[in-house]
């Protein structure tokens, strides 16, 4: 499995919750040796598409519209990988970068920031999608973003929305999907992000205390992350597959982060 790391949290979040690879390994239930990590935000080169069974593109503290050279190079790689049919899953920044790479439009959301543990609603067109089979029609997800997909690429379909954003889950092809929310976040990570930005949130007219009070477990996004990996890479152990099923059935409120500092 390939983790395309598009950024790293600020120090005030890292000291509490660790770095992105730790979050994804813990959430996916994968062993470290099953994941190659490429820090594209530091200029590390990506391998040729197809050398891994699946790739996940992480969130970032950058903006897609910044068009950093490393980000634009990753967009070219995404186009090549999708053309080859390589399984890809984008998360937050990765979600927006996939849309940008494939011809969509990304920019700041006209209504500002979306942050907290918020409700996601599946759309009617999502019903036949096997990846979402068995998911509740409405579920909670951890969110924090300023930019959004304003226009989908040709042929892409939105499968879920929130009250704030109409493009919470997008399918581009049988093997390429993306999510605006963060399936790798635990409640601890979500709370750390809110606390780290409390002053900015208050300046924007938002209520960080209410956000913190609303932080809740998000088992369905965890299940979707694991299901994507299991479907395309098969790297999750049998024990973790059972845990994934428990998550889907609502019997596991939230997986422990385990590796958090």
Automatic annotation (TrEMBL):
<keyword id="KW-0808">Transferase</keyword>
<keyword id="KW-0436">Ligase</keyword>
<feature type="domain" description="Glutamine amidotransferase">
    <location>
        <begin position="77"/>
        <end position="190"/>
    </location>
</feature>
<dbReference type="InterPro" id="IPR017926">
    <property type="entry name" value="GATASE"/>
</dbReference>
<protein>
    <submittedName>
        <fullName>Glutamine amidotransferase</fullName>
        <ecNumber>6.3.5.2</ecNumber>
    </submittedName>
</protein>
<dbReference type="GO" id="GO:0003922">
    <property type="term" value="F:GMP synthase (glutamine-hydrolyzing) activity"/>
</dbReference>
<dbReference type="InterPro" id="IPR029062">
    <property type="entry name" value="Class_I_gatase-like"/>
</dbReference>
<dbReference type="InterPro" id="IPR044992">
    <property type="entry name" value="ChyE-like"/>
</dbReference>
<dbReference type="GO" id="GO:0005829">
    <property type="term" value="C:cytosol"/>
</dbReference>
<dbReference type="Pfam" id="PF00117">
    <property type="entry name" value="GATase"/>
</dbReference>
<keyword id="KW-0315">Glutamine amidotransferase</keyword>
<dbReference type="GO" id="GO:0016740">
    <property type="term" value="F:transferase activity"/>
</dbReference>
């Amino acid at each position: 499995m390939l983790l395309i790391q598009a950024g790293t949290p600020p120090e005030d979040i890292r000291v509490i919750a660790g770095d992105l690879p730790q979050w994804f390994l813990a959430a996916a239930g994968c062993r470290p040796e099953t994941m190659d990590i490429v820090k594209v935000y530091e200029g590390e080169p990506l391998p040729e598409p197809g050398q891994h069974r699946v790739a996940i593109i992480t969130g970032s503290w950058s903006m897609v519209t910044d068009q950093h050279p490393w980000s634009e190079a990753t967009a070219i790689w995404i186009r090549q990988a999708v053309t080859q049919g390589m399984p890809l899953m984008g998360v937050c920044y990765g979600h927006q970068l996939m849309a940008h790479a494939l011809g969509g439009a990304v920019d700041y959301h006209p209504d500002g920031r979306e942050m907290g543990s918020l409700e996601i609603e599946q759309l009617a067109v999502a019903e036949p999608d096997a990846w979402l089979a068995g998911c509740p029609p409405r579920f909670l997800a951890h969110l924090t973003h300023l930019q959004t997909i304003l226009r989908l690429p040709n042929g892409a379909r939105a499968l879920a929305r929130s009250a704030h954003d109409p493009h919470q889950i997008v399918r581009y092809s049988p093997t390429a999907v993306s999510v605006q929310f963060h399936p790798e976040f635990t409640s601890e990570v979500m709370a750390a992000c809110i606390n780290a930005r409390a002053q900015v949130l208050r300046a924007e007219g938002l209520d960080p205390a209410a956000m913190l009070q609303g932080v809740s477990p998000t088992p369905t996004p965890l299940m979707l992350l694991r299901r994507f990996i299991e479907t395309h890479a098969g790297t999750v152990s049998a024990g973790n597959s059972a845990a994934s099923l428990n998550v889907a059935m609502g019997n596991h409120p939230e997986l422990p982060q385990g590796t958090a500092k």
